[in-house]
Design goal:
5% helix, two-stranded antiparallel sheet, mainly beta, 2 helices
């Protein structure tokens, strides 16, 4: 028994040197339980007695010196998290149990720090609780103390190693820091220059360093977007403005508006304003006065005036007789639609013209002479391609159809 204790002490010394950490070790008193069983075989001449001794050894935990944190000295203390300095690489190597049943779960197989799952073939697996790692949840997770700080993600690394004189491999846990962008070092303690120092944002964009990372983002201004504000946003490229309206992007670059040309309205300037409809004192009316006819134009209108009225809105009266349009010896009579002429004997029309029927040119006694003003022959005789520059006449002949069959019958 003394030989086993000596070997165990030598193993611990070798293990501590592997850790490369200045430490003191304390070997607790190894509880021993001795069970003696006697097997007696009886024959006719001799009796043989055999004694078997089974020793159970609890895990032994090394205790670190005063300038490093103290690790738990028993499995019952593992509920309290030890304090680990960020620059200290934590390697915790407990001694595994040496005697376990070969198959199946049993109490304390996962050291009270996890759930034992038994497979169909009798194998078992430990699903560890938070803060513990290892095949049997026997190692305190070094990432619980956040050795990577806020500049990286911590991952526990469990390795196994066979030691001389032991049949069961030894497990030990360290950590690995996966540093965020812009940080490096074993514990991500080194930070590079901030990315905004090179001013990567274009077109007056504002660069903002993201906390605890090497990344940045740009607050773009005006009509620019993209990672570095290098993409111009042309909101008016596919605008819906109509009728030659001007597309104007919004200041916050969220939308656009249509600036309509005169005479149009609507969100997209799709409607034309009818200038022939106006509202005066709450009454909808036409801008054309004195029974003038209004014609709607683009951003304008036109008034077709009646009779003696003139002006943009037919607002001005002009006496048509002031210019003596009926001719000498005639009387001009104005009306709402212009004027009429009261001609002297031997004259007719407006203006007054010599009457060609005075000579009674139609030959038949039953015929009738009709005087026609200069230029009006084509309106009297449909289909007549004629242009009379002077007053003329036609004869209405009773024996023909139509009656205007001949000038002289």
């Amino acid at each position: 028994m003394h030989l086993k204790t000596t070997c165990f002490t030598i193993y611990l010394i070798v293990l501590i040197k592997i850790l490369n950490v200045e430490c003191q070790y304390v070997i607790p008193t190894i509880p021993q339980s001795t069970t003696t069983s006697t097997t007696t075989t009886t024959t006719t001449t001799t009796t043989t007695t055999t004694t078997t001794t089974v020793i159970t050894i609890d895990p032994v935990y090394p205790t670190f010196s005063t300038n490093v944190p103290t690790l738990p000295t028993s499995t019952s203390q593992l509920t309290t998290q030890p304090t680990i300095q960020p620059t200290f690489t934590y390697t915790y190597t407990p001694v595994p149990l040496t005697t376990t049943p070969a198959y199946g779960c049993f109490p304390q197989y996962c050291n009270g720090n996890g759930q034992c799952i038994e497979q169909a073939n009798g194998d078992r697996t430990c699903v560890c609780n938070a803060r513990f790692v290892g095949s049997r949840c026997q190692i305190f997770d070094p990432c619980n103390n956040k050795p990577c700080g806020v500049n990286g993600a911590c991952f526990p690394v469990v390795t196994t190693q066979m030691m001389s004189g032991l049949s069961t491999p030894i497990e030990q846990a360290t950590f690995h820091c996966q540093c965020y962008s812009g940080f490096s070092g074993v514990q991500c303690e080194r930070a590079g220059a901030q990315p905004c120092a090179s001013n990567p944002c274009l077109n007056n964009g504002i660069c903002v360093n993201q906390n605890n990372t090497w990344n940045y983002y740009c607050i773009c201004s005006g009509f620019y977007t993209g990672k570095n504000c290098g993409t111009y946003i042309d909101l008016c490229q596919n605008n819906k403005c109509q009728n030659d309206a001007l597309c104007i992007p919004a200041i916050d670059n969220s939308n656009y508006t249509c600036s309509c040309k005169n005479g149009f309205y609507g969100d997209y300037c799709q409607f034309e304003i009818n200038e022939c409809i106006v509202q005066i004192n709450g009454v909808i009316t036409s801008p054309c006065l004195n029974n003038g006819t209004c014609h709607d134009l683009i951003d304008n209108y036109f008034c077709q005036c009646n009779g003696p009225y003139v002006g943009t809105n037919c607002e001005r009266y002009v006496n048509p007789c002031d210019s003596n349009p009926c001719g000498a010896g005639a009387v001009c009579i104005p009306n709402d639609y212009g004027y009429t002429c009261q001609c002297a004997p031997g004259f007719f029309g407006t203006p007054c013209q010599p009457n060609p029927c005075l000579s009674n040119p139609c030959r038949l006694p039953s015929s009738q002479c009709i005087a026609i003003e200069a230029g009006a022959l084509s309106t009297i005789l449909p289909g007549c391609n004629c242009n009379n520059n002077i007053p003329t006449y036609v004869c209405a002949c009773a024996s023909t159809n139509p009656t205007y069959a001949s000038i002289n019958c």
